Amino acid sequence: MSADQEAETRAAALRGGTHVSPEDAAIGCRNVTKTFGSITAVDDVDLGVADGEWVSIVGPNGAGKTTLLNILNGFYTPDAGSEVFLNGEEVSGRPEHYRARHGIGRTFQGLELFESEDVLENVMTTRAVAERPNVLSAMLYYGTGRKTEAENMRFVEEILDYLELWEHRHTTVSTLPLGVQRRVDLARSLALEPDVLLLDEAMSGLTFDEKYDMIRFLTDLHEEEGLTLVMIEHDLEVVTAVSERMIVMQKGGVIARGPPEEVTNDPEVARVYTGVE
Amino acid sequence: MAADNAESEGVASGDSDDSGLSVERVLTAPEGESVPIVSDRALPEILIDHAAEHPDDIALRWKRYGVWQEFTWEEYYDRVERFALGLEEYGFGDEDVLFTIGYNRPHQLWAWIAAQSLGGMAAPNYEDMLPEDIEKQLRLLEPEVVYAEDQEMVDKLLLVSGDVPSLSTIIYRDDKGMFRYENGEKTEPGDPEIVAYEDVEERGRERRESGAVSDDYLASEIQAVPAEATAMLAPTSGTTGMPKRVRLSHFNLVNLANAAIDIDPLPKESDYFSYLPMAWVGEQMILLAAAFVAGWTANFPEQPETEEEDLREIGPEIIFSSPKRYEAWVADIKAKVENTTRFKRWVYEKATSIGEKYAEYVIGDRNDEEPPAWLRGAHWLSYWVAYRPILDKIGLKRAKNVYTGGGPLGEDHFEYYHAMGVPLKQIWGQSEVCGFVTMHRDDDVQVETVGEVFPNVEVGITPGGELLVRGPVVTSGYYGMPEKTESAFEDGWLHTDDFGALTDDDHVRIFDRMDDVLEMSDGTAVAPISVETKLKFNPYVKEAMVVGDDRAELTAVLNIRYDNVAEWADQRDIQYAGYSDLTRKEPVLELLRGVVAETNEDLDNPIRRFVLLFKEFDADDGELTRTGKLRREVVVDRYGDLVTALYDGSTEIAMELTITYQDGRESDERGVMRIVDVDQPVLDDDRELEVS
Where do the ABC transporter domain residues begin and end (chain A) (predicted)? Predict the structure, then answer.
């Protein structure tokens, strides 16, 4: 096979379909489209992320990355004909809280934290959402209500310990540096015991040291706890270093997917990122 | 100044030893203090007694997952037994060394006592040591088994383990991130076996439950440990080179504990807060000796980052801290008061003025008089209105036995704490004497001294002013360094290398290390440390090094206390980018010029010029010991050009320095520093800022 043919084959592979079918994936979607009026934010995207895999989504601003994440976790309802799968179950019609209880965790680029609450309260609140003691026992703080709170507290403390948030336990979130706030956001998503974690620019605005810390935590979660990670990230150096596969989006569609070292060498991807032909 | 004191007070008539060593005078404990010497007890035996006599009392607390986890004396012994039986499975036995490196955790303490129970000894290390320093210690100690806190410390050990063939097992406590070692991803063939603390305990538990050893096996092993066996190999501070390892026997530590408890008794229910590095002999003398023998509860913080909050939650009766910590608290209180409301500041100032008067009767010139009734009443009110809330914030509200040691704390600091009603006492000692041999007594705190001698101990002085010690707390020597042991002892006395004096009322005074005393060109001797502690009473000075050996004038190299100076600068809208930049700002230089000028008012030999170093002195760069003491020889050598510039009329100096990071990486930093003449304002008159 000539060099040209090899390049073509490689390019075709990069622009091919998912390596795992959406139905068999930890999280996946088929033919997902989302239009806002005349704007098509996500255009006929297929996605399959295998159990325990770390996938990064990259692309310029407005490429549809966050919209895709919002569709996966149920914030947005996609257009008719779109299908979303979670551990083999079709969840297209299910609301976000159902998906959260069935294994999807999510962090936010804009950090949707309770700013006037302290770190422990932020994470405990999220944890409480996951539990539903019956109303009477919760009101009387008796029996299962009391037991549940103690168990929740223990679980949340383990997360704070894991993410090294001890010293900030009783600090009001708004007074914390951005790097710590992003860790609190991650702690909150872990409070729901997710199988799949969707990370929307979890390292945006962080210093080198903060970014290093965040990568360390995510790597441990991925390797030690076996968490499936889907991460939107602009820093290609980080993406190449940590993820097993990457997906490049542009104008709502997927233009390349595959191992990071192959995708980043793809001329089409380079053109999208640098504008150079 | 120091020499004058030394000449007037250091030489007193007294006994002269018959031997070659000339001992001018010998001090013993104050009359009435008598403690029998115990020569047949090993430390683990005391644990057995506690577990038998009050098994359900709380022995230890460790904050974990935000909650104080409690361990009774029975559980304490059980954990020690399990670990010891497991440790034996890794070949550990009589006279073996257990090398430990880690934060303050019950596990490290259990590991020490487990090693001692098997006839071995524990060699603790500072958790922030660089790999090359760890390697030197491993080569000296040649341990087979190492206890390490977490992944970071395991990594450092693995980095150097190739050159230490004796090392066969690393036991880690915190399993975070350790899964990579279990699957072999981070280890190579030939590396030591890496095993979890719980797994060692589990092997010990299995041995006992399977009947492989009898239920009283460990207890009988403990009975066989002789009191004179080495229990700890405490590191020296290493101000003049690589830290040596001091052999401290069970006999040394038990007798030290008995003396300390006799001087300052407290009920068994009292709390001690363990947060100084466990490698420091000062921590060992309380955690492993005094608190252990007295049965006080030792409390361990959750993490180094949560120490302040955890200390406040416990509010211990017994607290032992380095001078640096007491200095930091004062600086912190003063900075906070400056930024509080006008009313609160007014209350604080009123209370301070009453406190200062009151302190005169407690530790000052009038300590032989009773404070008048009005002053007692005013101080009582000040305590409840101002001091108690402040003490509550820093965790000293319930403190009764409050000690500092490991270096001198300035007289101003002492007065400050006594003004607040905190009965702070200075102790003096070193690793070679289990940490302390003199201490202030309750009714006789003289701030210019380090107190009186311990029961059963003798402190002597040579004609040259060097202090000597002998008694049951004195080490038998250094591990693996017979030549150092030989030079440290003479005629049964331990040379302390501390330059001091014995006062007429039987107190001990320390001026400085023998090698550190400066001799100015006119022959005046100056103890730099006494000048430096005065400078550090100001909230804007964190560290100081006074220079003047063989010179006509004193000068100083200063480190600013970054948080406080930064806050001061923020309030004046001074823009800066980090520590280095802040040290170059003219208003900051002027602020510090004011500080030095104010300090000069109390000095016989004023500081003429100073420079604000563009970086902080750092243990990783070898400038401080791991306990925070200035390594004067290293610093003078490293900043030779800077010292020259302080005397040759230069107005500024540029320096390039290699900075070392915790993981051993290095980077080159360049800084330009202005030399400030204390008599010349830094700012032009029309740009003068309020700096007081």
Answer: 27-276
CATH number assigned to the domain comprising residue B537 = 3.30.300.30
Q: Is residue B252 part of a domain?
A: no
Question: Tokens standing for B424?
Answer: 């702070």
Q: What is the largest CA-CA distance in chain B?
A: 87
Out of B177, B180, B303, closest to residue A166 by CB? B303
Q: What is the pLDDT of residue B577?
A: 85
Q: Which of B124-133, B329-338, B373-382 has the highest mean pLDDT?
A: B373-382
| Chain B residues near residue A162 by CB distance under 8 angstroms | 176
Name the residue facing A223 among B67, B176, B179 (closest C-beta). Answer: B179
Name the pairing type of β-strands B438-439 and B452-453. antiparallel
Rg of chain B, C-alpha, whole Å: 26
In percent, the amount of chain B with pLDDT more than 90 equals 68
What is the rounded distance in angstroms from the CA atom of residue B132 to the CA atom of residue B666?
13
Name the fold adopted by A1-103+194-277: Rossmann fold (3.40.50)
Cα(B169)–Cα(B194) distance, integer angstroms: 6
Indicate the pairing of strand B245-249 with strand B230-235. Answer: antiparallel
**Residue B461, in any domain of the structure:** no
Ranges assigned E (strand) in B116-216: 121-125, 145-148, 169-172, 193-196
pTM across the whole model: 0.82
**Final residue of a domain: which of B294, B314, B334?**
B314
User: Residue B10 has what pLDDT?
Assistant: 30
Q: How many folded domains does chain B comprise?
A: 2
Contact across the interface for B66 and A162, Cβ inside 8 Å: no
Which residue from B minimizes the CA distance to A225? B179
Residue A75 CA to residue B341 CA, distance in Å, equals: 48
Token pair 């986890």 in the structure block, residue:
B69
CA B316 to chain centre: 18
Closest CA to B408 of B509, B328, B319: B509
Can you say whether the dihedral through the CA atoms of B264, B265, B268, B269 is positive or negative?
Answer: negative
| Secondary structure of residue A87 in the 3-state scheme | coil
pLDDT band, residue A134 (cuts 50/70/90)? low
**A7 or B558: which leads in pLDDT:** B558
Nearest CB to A158: which of B65, B180, B306? B65
| pLDDT, position B289 | 92
Q: What is the pLDDT of residue A54?
A: 95
Instruction: Report pLDDT digits (tens) over B203-249.
Output: 999 999 999 999 999 999 999 999 999 999 999 987 767 889 999 99
* B63: containing domain: 43-225+264-314
Chain A touched by B343 (CB under 8 Å)? no
- Helices B411-419 and B528-535: crossing angle, nearest 10°? 40
Angle at the Cα of A154 (from A176 to A189), degrees rounded to 5?
50
Residue from B316, B304, B329, B307 nearest B266 by CA:
B316
Residues 167-206 of B with CB under 8 A from A: 176-177, 179-180
Residue in A closest to B65 by C-alpha: A157
Q: How far is A220 from chain B (nearest CA, A)?
A: 6
Given CB atoms, is B309 within the 8 Å cutoff of chain A?
yes
Beta bridge partners of B351: none
Domain ranges of chain A: 1-103+194-277, 112-193
Let me know: does B469 contact B433? Beta carbons within 8 Å.
yes
**Mean pLDDT over each residue of chain B, to the nearest integer:** 90
Put simply, whether B66 touches A (Cβ < 8 Å) is: yes
- B541-547 and B145-148 beta bridge pairing: unpaired
SS3 call for B499: strand
Flag if A169 and B305 touch (Cβ within 8 Å).
no
Q: A237: Cβ–Cβ under 8 A, 6 or more apart, which residues?
A: none
With respect to residue B441, please indicate whether it lies within any of the assigned structural domains. Answer: no
